[in-house]
Amino acid sequence: MSFLRLRLLPQCPISWDKQIIWDLKVKSSNSLYLLLEIEGIKVAKQQQKAEAKRKATPVIGDLHPLMDALPELSDLMTLRKFPKHHKIQVKKRVPTNFNQMNSAQKSKALVEEIAQFHKTISDPLFKANPLAVISEHLSKRLMQEREGEPL
């Protein structure tokens, strides 16, 4: 019926023009829905073919459901950014001021200092020229302090 209206458009009264436009819109939307249904049917057939092909694969079978069930790597990476409880062993700061140390720390520091002193005295370079060795050590120490590195 609307096909006839399109042919008779110049002879139609003005009120019929709106009806013709409406009919065209309805037909175009119906054809769009029809195209979408056809596309959906094609996609479903392709999925069925792919599933049949995966099932026909020997030994392994269909791994697609397993792959769908596993989380993506990006999801795992976002979860690892915030680890739960990691025990980080932090060494306790040893006070550098002798007055702030307890007796065990004081005795340990004295033993280490005595061992270092005996090692320095027995060094053959120190025995040969003690002033040169001390000045070299102090210059290295000053350079390290300027760079911000501890000894």
From TrEMBL:
It comes from the Eukaryota. The keyword Coiled coil does not apply. This is Uncharacterized protein. GO terms for cellular component: 90S preribosome; nucleolus; preribosome, small subunit precursor. One of its GO terms (biological process) is maturation of SSU-rRNA from tricistronic rRNA transcript (SSU-rRNA, 5.8S rRNA, LSU-rRNA). It is found in: Nucleus, Nucleolus. Pfam families: SLX9 (PF15341). Belongs to the SLX9 family.
